[in-house]
Batch of 2 targets.
Target 1
Amino acid sequence: MAKHNRTVAVAFCLLLAAACGRAAEQGDLGYTPAPENLEARQWFQDAKFGLFIHWGVYSLLGRGEWVMHVEDIPIAEYEKLPPQFDPTGFDPDEWCRMAADAGMRYITITSKHHDGFAMFDSKVSDYDIVERTPYGRDVLKMLAGACERHGLKLFFYHSQLDWHHPDYYPRGGSYSHGRPESGDWQRYLDYMDSQLTELCTGYGKLGGIWFDGMWEKPEADWRLGRTYRLIHRLQPQALIGSNHHVAPFPGEDFQMFEKGLPGRDPFNKGAGISALPLETCETINHSWGYDRQDHWPKSTRELLHYLIRAAGNNANFLLNVGPKPDGTIQQDHRKRLEAMGQWLRKYGDTVYGTRGGPFAEQSWGVSTVKGGRVFLHVLGPDAVITLPEIGRPVRSAALLDKTPLELRATPLGTVVKMPENRPDEYDTIVEVELE
Ligand code: FHN
């Protein structure tokens, strides 16, 4: 029996060691977030709303950021785009004003997307905006300055997947047109770390780094622990997140979801919902990068409901625009952002600084909480709503202008009678007092 127990114990230790080894490869096992990182997490959760920007040389073709892969464009052909990229209409202050007026508190912009083209002045590659385009200016540096002036934090989206770098090998399932079957993976990771070092040292205090792309090679050793330690050393307050669609790895500071509320996004591979700050991202229309055929923006109602439901699910909302090749942003997208800003100026108090409320999402909407204040966001025309039992009786309910609402206790929960005249067309906000 003792021998059997010893064998089980040894097997267990071996398994644990293997698991730890794997986790160590993929994350920073000894990670303790710095105080400024913890503070930044609070700020992030309070901020609630950010602007996502997908901008690169692909915008010239106006067929989205995946055009190189989708149309199987040879690298030599794709390299003809940068010499045509001259965004003379780019005005970073104007972008920041637009974001701030929309009620956004941060911007996350593509420093490098899957096409491998750096939108900043990289010294470890000449495949970048300064060296390859007639524009010749570092748009990220310009944006960093503007963000500072407008009180917005700046995050960089950085693609780990790379369709251009010769050392991105072995490749994943996406673009590979005519690329040689060779490359040095460690050298590629060194290159990525060097570019990240540039981003973490030349653009002021960053909000964070938003990784994307390791989903295409989930089994590879991405040396995450090393890369995350590098970023945390250079920018302790910077929040690291990765869009890998699985549960967060050690060293990550927030968890993100794409095109869906936490745990309900279509790419989810059993990611679960962690205790880290949460964020979900979505497009205004249907494209991340500029698509000149996409004239179907979501309605203001849909976008506001997304933001409110995200808040009720304890998550931030990162809403994307894909600027045009000249650096301007589509008019119909700007209109949506303006309308969201108008709504937030009136009702932002029930969104910013809140956390997911005590009532889980219901068919009528969501709840948020701030301090002791609980807000119900009733998103539909329901004449009555039912608050499920949460072990704390509801003492009173009122609209924000203090108009009291009738309550009735039922076996299914507390029923609240909604007013006939709604103060707002998108969201009827009810403040409830709990025992
Ligand atoms: O492939 C990308 C896509 O182009 C875009 O950047 C989105 C944003 O979340 N993420 C990827 C796929 O998960």
Note: DSSP finds eleven helices and 16 strands in the chain.
Target 2
Amino acid sequence: MDKSRLCIHTITTRPWSIEQAMDKYAEAGIGGITVWRQSLEGRDPEKIGEQLRSRNLSIVSLCRGGFFPALVAADREKAIEENRAAIREAAALGAPMVVLVCGATPGQSLEESRKQIADGIAAVLPTAEDYKIKLAIEPLHPMYAGDRSAVNTMASANDICQKIHHPLVGIAVDVYHVWWDPNLAEQIGIAADRSRLFAFHVCDWLVPTKDFLNDRGLMGEGCIDIPGIRRMVDATGFNGFHEVEIFSDRWWATDQDEFLARIQTAYREHC
Ligand code: ZN
């Protein structure tokens, strides 16, 4: 099986340290890794970057920045600083991109939050330019509109990108968040036409879903037409990684070697 375009997010195998994860992914012949910031805690990102490259793992992105909206200006400024730190961390690691979970704040309208998101991204752009780091807006499923993201559709992400209009600002498409969207193919096409299709994340939607955050399924366990969405993405000429990003209390409680094997089988059969 060709695993050169398979990438795994470190959070997918959360029980493993990044040192364990990099060894296991490399042994399995997996092509890429997306690093979650918490897995770098207490470590030198430059050194981790070297270790990843020496194992022939492509560093696909750093997760995550964002969370720009806030009720008061001081908190928005704090978020901007944190995003600049994430960009510097990505540069040290050697990751070309930071994925943004854009944020939403109860107590203000989604429209206001979206404006603050666009303003926040614009504010960190000079830092992104300095380090040549891409910023990928990840639209989140509407169930997260309350407090995690005011950007809930590809159309909304495309709008914000169009407002900012910068080659370093694009979109991460995650099947978990957008699979239900009747305009998905069209909006993926629009993003790609504008050279803004930056990343493609896969997992599955379980029926029933027991937890808003940590009950994602392995590909094939749920109801998302992953091959169908992949065809939409492929049709645009996208040649990036297929990133497996699964938050799952259920899978985290299992043997992670077994889980990694299951991920590879699921990738072959259901992506
Ligand atoms: Zn994602």
Note: The mean pLDDT is 98.
